[in-house]
Amino acid sequence: MKQRVLRLFLIFIMIGLTAGMGCKKGEKEFDITDGSWGISLQTSTANTSWVYQFVGNKQSGSIYYRDLILGTYAVFGDTVNFTTNHSDGQSNIYVYVYNGVIIDYYKMSGTFIINPPDGSIITGTWNAER
């Protein structure tokens, strides 16, 4: 009887470990919704930064800047993708498309593309810290 209980207990533990609380085996699950992120962008001609907050769940949601919804995000394991829309104050919308990796609880980084209204394309890198 003790061996049967021990076996069932070990099977239960193994199922729990391989299930990984919703993760695929070997894949980490990150939560970028806990706190605000300082995002720094660098291009060949300029640098800028914002503070974003990701609101939703671990997989997807909305991005806020000063209580305004700017766009959406999606997380797949340690990969993060998000898109934001910024106005220049003159009715022109600039679409920012970010692709990157979540390094750990405190850091993310990657590349981005800006699609200005004039049809040009601006590329660069970004870093984020909580």
Q: In DSSP terms, counting alpha (H) and pi (I) runs of 4 or more, how many helices?
A: 1
CATH H-tier superfamily of the largest domain: Quinohemoprotein amine dehydrogenase alpha subunit, domain 2
Name of the CATH class of the largest domain: Mainly Beta
- Global Rg: 20 Å
| CATH architecture designation of the largest domain | Beta Barrel
Distance between the termini: 51 Å
The class by helix and strand makeup works out as mainly beta
CA-based shape: globular
Strand content: over 45%
Largest sheet: 8 strands, antiparallel, barrel
Describe the structure.
- By secondary structure, this protein is mainly beta.
- It has 2 domains: 26 residues, no CATH class; 99 residues, Lipocalin (Beta Barrel), CATH 2.40.128.
- 14% of the residues lie in helices and 54% in strands.
- It contains 1 helix and 8 strands.
- The chain has an 8-stranded antiparallel β-barrel with strand order 1-2-3-4-5-6-7-8.
- The relative contact order is 0.16.
- The N terminus is likely disordered.
Keywords:
single chain, 130 residues, mainly beta, Lipocalin, 2 domains, eight-stranded antiparallel barrel, 8 strands, disordered N terminus
Summarize the structure.
The protein is mostly beta strands and 130 residues long.
Write the topology of this structure.
Blueprint: H1 2-19, E1 36-42, E2 47-56, E3 60-65, E4 68-76, E5 79-87, E6 93-104, E7 107-115, E8 122-129
Antiparallel strand pairs: 1-2, 1-8, 2-3, 3-4, 4-5, 5-6, 6-7, 7-8
